[in-house]
Please model this.
Amino acid sequence: MSFVSAAQEAHAYLALFRAGCRRSQRYKLALVSGLLTNLFFGLVRTALFYALYREGADVAVRGLDLADALTYVWMVQAMFGVVWASWIWEFPEAVRSGDFVVELTRPGDPWLRQLAYELGRTLNQLLLRSTLPLLGAAALLPLALPTTPVGVLLVAVSMVLASVVAFEVRFLFGTVAFWSSDYRAVFNIVFPVLWLVSGFVIPIDYFPAALRALAEGSPLYAMLMAPVHVAVGQSVAGSLARQVAWVVALGAASRVALSLACRRLVVHGG
Amino acid sequence: MARALWPGAGLRPFGPGPGLAARAARLRAGAAVYRRLAVATLRGRVRQPAGFVLRTLATGLVVVTEIVGVVLLVERFGTLAGWTAPEVVLLVGLGAAGQGLGLVFGDRLEPAFFSEVVRKGSFDQVLTRPTSPLGWMVASYVEVRFLGRVAVGAGAVAWAAERAGVGWTLPRLLVAAMAVACCATLVFAISVLGGALTLYTIEGSEVVNIFTYGGVSLSCYPMEIYGPGLRAVFLWVVPFALAVYVPALVLLGRAGPPGLPATLVWLTPAATALFAGLAAAGWRAGIRHYVGTGS
Model:
């Protein structure tokens, strides 16, 4: 550690970030099928909200009008692949197989290394898989996206913050593998709740008051609904502030979990 | 469909098929083999009871959250295209029960898993076995955990029927059972087609999920909300609308919108069988095309 300077270390993280970027660029077929899936589910949900708002003609329901709801629909499609990344099992699998031990022997910080690498992969997704459906929908449908450069920049910042929180949530979940080898069963049972509370099923604005308070107070808010609210221009500063707070809090929690896990880590095999 | 499930079907490329008596004997022997394989798989799963119970609950819990979402959403607005929340839940329940049942048999043909089987060369071994490759894949990877989804789906149908004032008569029960069976067959058939596609592309493509998951998820809402394009595809190409929406019209005593009357329910079994036949043909083409993936 002492013979690696801070600059060298930063250089290493940057290299990992670029490697992550390149890695997800390789999978062209996955990108195309991901985009088609986004398009399909986006169309179905668009039809759903058009039908719902036709009933309530031109009124805002719980603060969301049709344009806001459609923006939500396409933001869900934009964020889906970033939040529930297809590589979610890599970390717990590395823990289970014992490959993760190698990570502990490498210079630098294992958590920061993983963050750099995953952000690289995520950023590539954000640039292609998230932006394309969102721009396409914005061109064809009456979305409520910001039109000023600052507004657009804030949405982009919020989406990047959301991907950092999503990485931290995935990381925390992955540390379950240190305690239970059946982490998939644990995830399967937890996932439906995360799915609902984070707002992937319906916008949390439609939730009953108690459930909405729970959803807004949880870190899951920072993964999806915060960028949605920033995009439609509802409590922009508050949403961004919450995201920053959760990035820090979950980052600290991840590091505590990792140090606890390493203390009880037993490596099998020789 | 049945032909592809016969043991040896994949190993009989030349000459006329065996006689009727021989075929019947083969079918019996095959059924015994598949039953044993499936039971062995099930026993393996139950070896870790806690994990098994969690996984089964989890497949049901997904449907519970979907139903919570649909009910909250529709009640915020009053109705969805004239359908009340319980009426929409009836659609969700029929679709979920059918999808769960289809995935019990078809889940492991999904691209992510089956493409790994193919890439590792394990599928070569499957082809050398004296059983049908499809029968072997289905029986040895039967996923009982999806029965959790079937149970929640059936519960949702019962709840919704009560709320929507559907009295259960024998014909209505038969219509509901047929809807679930046809939806399950469609989901399984799509998985088989996805498997066949993987035999061509080797690297699996998640596009298949648009139909296995997307088709059912589209069937969760009344077809009135979709434009003519989506409606036509899911009515006449991948007939999920015939398997879920049209039977629900019959159960609820609704006439259905123009061009999509409840009387189409008579077409449901035939359309499902036709689609299953296409899937079987696709699978056979995939098997014929398959040349192995190297050492």
